[in-house]
Amino acid sequence: MIDAKDREIIEALQCGLPLMAAPYAQVAADLGIDEDALLFRLADMKSRGVIRRIAAAPNHYKLGMTSNGMTVWDVEDGCVAELGARIGALPFVTHCYERPRALPDWPYNLFAMVHGADRDEVEEKRTQIAAILGDACRAKDILYSTRILKKTGLRLKKKG
Prior knowledge:
By secondary structure, the protein is of the alpha+beta class.
């Protein structure tokens, strides 16, 4: 599914982009390829489903956002996509997605991660989400983070 150059690109990016004005140019130079070739290969890998995205993964604790809650919602199936898009567009939601319910124990199908300086701030943001969901929401809960479990993206195993 990937060739040797794709593997080399993924390995070069799996620890993050260099913090500089032209990070892709630097990665391309390190790999001995043209920046346009690097960007083409990344777009190709994304279109084939090899990678989903390249995104920042901030450490919210270090940014002062020490209260983090995954809000979970039981939203009517007919409107979960439209409402999920609205929730995901909120500036304080870092990721939002639909997941299948696991009935009878887990009725929730919409998830939205919210960060705040304290729990009061997170609860205020959760109230804003609830207002948007309105009567389409049948149940809700929040799961507060107690520690950082993962702050990395794709990792390839070394060959050999």
